[in-house]
Give the backbone structure.
Amino acid sequence: MIQFDSNRFGKLAMWSLRNDRSYYVRSFLQIFAVQTLMFLFFTTGVLKINNNSGNYSACGVITIMFFLITFLIGPSTMFYSLKGKHDKQALMLLPASNFEKYLMRYSTWIIILPIGVVATLGADLIQYLVNWLMGHPYTSFVFTRVFELIGKGLDALNAQELNSFVICNMWLHSIYAIGGSFFRSRKYTWVLTTLVIIVISLLVAWVMPESSNENAQTPTHVMAIADAITAILVMVNFWLSYRCFCRTQNIGKFINF
C-alpha cells in the first residue's frame, strides 16, 4: 500500500538536501566549467561556422541537447549522490515510507535542472563579456538562440507529432527510471540502461518486418493508438521502477550485478 505524508516527506527532503549538498555543488561547478569552455570555444573565433553566424546556433543546439539528455537519463542518477554504504544504510533506516523515499531519490535529477540552468546562464554571461571585451560585432547571448531554435522546432511540428515526441521521450525517461532503481549500486547506471535499450531496439528492428513503402504517411488514428499504448507503458515502467526500489528496500541490500 502506498503511504504518503507531506510533513514526513518534507523532513525527508530536508535530510536529502543536506546530505546531497556537496553533490549539487559539484554538479554546478562541472556544468558551469564545461558550458563556459564550450561557449568560449565556439564564440571567440577559435572555430568559425558560417562566418560566426552559426557559432551561436551550435551553442544553442548543444545546450538544448544537454537539457534533453539530462531529462532522459536523469532518473538513472537517483543514487549518484549517496556516498558509500553509510548513506545507503541511512536512507533505508529513515522513518519514511518506500514511496516517499522513492520520490525523493527520483527528484534528484529535477533539482539538477535549475542548477544546470543557473550554471549555463553564468557561462552565457561570461562568454558575452569576453566577446564584448574582445570587440566582436556579433556578440550575443546563447539563450537568445536557444529560444529561437525551440520556437522553430515547435513551428515545424504539428500537434500530433509534438504529442508523439513528448510521449516517446517520456517512455525513454521511464526506462532510465527502471535502470536507476535496478542498477542503483552502479556508478554508471545510465550506461548499462543505454546498452539494454540498444539491444532491445536491435532485437525489435530484427523481428519487425521491413516496410515496403518508405514514403507512406502513418494515419493519424494509428499514431494516436501508438501514443496511447506508449503512455500506458510509461506508467507501467514507473510502477516497475518503484517495485524494484521497494524490493531492494525490503531485503535490506542493494542489487549488485
Summary: Residues 73 and 176 are 6 Å apart (CA to CA). The first helix runs from residue 6 to 19.
